[in-house]
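From the methods appendix. Each design record in this collection lists the tokenized structure first, followed by the designed amino acid sequence. Records were kept in a plain field format so they could be parsed without special tools. The example shown here is representative of the layout used throughout.

RECORD:
FOLD TOKENS (79 positions):
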């Protein structure tokens, strides 16, 4: 309950064609890694330091694909 899956945010960003929505997804992921630099299985909606799975390769791999896609197609959104 009250947990958000970074995978859902990543997939939203990967499938969007709207620059504002893609930027929003990037910003949400950037601010919710709880200082670890990694994507987690899930994080609490009010406190990202409460998360599941310290290392979750699936989310980390898709996050890398998302950033790579943005870099290739919409570099300006990464600044």
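DESIGN:
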């Amino acid at each position: 309950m009250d947990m958000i899956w970074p995978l859902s945010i990543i997939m939203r960003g990967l499938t969007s064609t709207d620059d504002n929505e893609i930027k929003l997804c990037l910003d949400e992921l950037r601010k919710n890694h709880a200082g670890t630099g990694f994507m987690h299985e899930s994080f609490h909606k009010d406190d990202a330091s409460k998360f599941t799975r310290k290392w979750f390769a699936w989310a980390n791999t898709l996050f890398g694909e998302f950033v790579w896609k943005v870099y290739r197609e919409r570099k300006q959104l990464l600044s």
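APPENDIX NOTE: The chain has a mean pLDDT of 96.
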